[in-house]
Amino acid sequence: MGKLVIRDLVAKILVIQGGMGVGVSLSKLAGNVAKCGGVGIISTAQIGYQEKGFEEHPIETNLKAIEKHIKRAKEIAQGGVVGVNIMVATKKYEEYVKAAVKAGVDLIISGAGLPTRLPELVEKSKTKIAPIVSSIKSANVICKLWDRKYKRCPDLVVIEGPKAGGHLGFSYEELQTITQEQYEDEIKGIIQVVESFGEKYDYHIPIVTAGGIYDVQDMKHAMELGVDGVQVATRFVTTYECDASDAYKQAYIDAKQEEIQIVKSPVGMPGRAIHNAFIEETEKEPVKIKKCLQCLEHCKQKDIPYCITNALINAVKGKVSQGLIFCGANAWRAKKIEHVSDIMKEFSGYMTV
Question: 3-state SS of the chain: helix, strand, coil percent to 5?
Answer without folding.
Answer: 40, 15, 40
